[in-house]
Amino acid sequence: MSFPRFTDRAVLVTGAGSGLGRAIALAFAAEGARVAVAGRAAAPLDETVALIEAAGGTARAFTADVAVAEDTRRLVRDTVAAFGGLDVAVNNAGVFRGGHLAGDFPLEDWRTLLDINVTGVLHALQAEIAHMRAHGGGAIVNIASNLGAHVRVPGLFGYQVSKAAVSAITRAAALDHVADGIRINAVSPGAAESSMSLRPGETEADRAVRMKEESPLGRISSAAEIAAAVLYLASDAAGSAVGTDLVIDGGVSA
Predict the structure, then answer these.
(1) 197: pLDDT confidence band, cut at 50, 70 and 90?
(2) Cα–Cα nearest to 17, from 53, 54, 42
């Protein structure tokens, strides 16, 4: 018999319209949480809410752009208004830009990566922390990547820098706010069940063949495996996990 770990807790997941964000939102809802799903486009968020509600869960959709500080503040206010608080936040929103070496990296792509992957995480953290430290604490999980702080490959310069920054932000913020009763940690996925892990023109079957060579485990991580890591760090069972960067990549960075 299993016992839901997040019954009646209010959880916010950014970038929840597809991929890992959607899987994370579904996993929290399956364990009793009331989930605010956020992203820039309404239609995919509505699909996530419909999936949660079809499974008997509770969710609300809120459009927001994490690159805009006021959007993240409004997002937290809307979550609190809808569910009476904010217990857990998962900062998953991010973008990928690749295919260029450092010396040739387009400045437009650089600015996009920094605005969303780095400054966007800071915006969300600040809004979440402001509420949590005034209301007894909470748990925050940032989604980083094995690329950056843990492993590097040629041609992904900007993305790797942005995700390494998320790992660093997580550790520094964790120390700053543990005394406020807020636990901040990160999950760093490798290639996972998401369109972001597909190379241009690559099919899922092609990716499966490639991963047999590139991953010691011989496959990508499932979205459910990434979600399980996030839920663990957000749960009471991880009560002493502070500033942890949990790598889930099938041994690629081992």
Answers:
(1) confident
(2) 42
Known active-site residue 159:
yes
**Nearest CA-CA partner of 246 in 179, 113, 150:** 150
Tell me if 7 sits within 8 A of 30, measured CB to CB.
no
The pLDDT tens digits for 29-64 are 999 999 999 999 999 999 999 999 999 999 999 999
Written as six digits, the tokens of 207 are 């990716």
Beta strands in the chain (DSSP E): 10-14, 34-39, 58-63, 88-91, 138-143, 182-189, 245-248
The answer to whether 248 and 229 are in contact (CB under 8 A) is yes
CB 89 within 8 A of CB 42: no
60 bridge partner residues: 36
pLDDT band at 1 (very low <50, low <70, confident <90, very high): very low
Q: Which domains does the chain have, with CATH numbers?
A: 10-247 (3.40.50.720)
8 A C-beta contact, residue 241 and residue 183: yes
pLDDT in tens, 82-94: 999 999 999 999 9
The sign of the dihedral angle between the CA atoms of 225, 228, 233, 238 is negative
What single DSSP character describes residue 250?
T
Q: Which helix (H) or strand (E) holds 70?
A: helix 69-83
Q: Of these residues, 159, 186, 188, 245, which one is catalytic?
A: 159
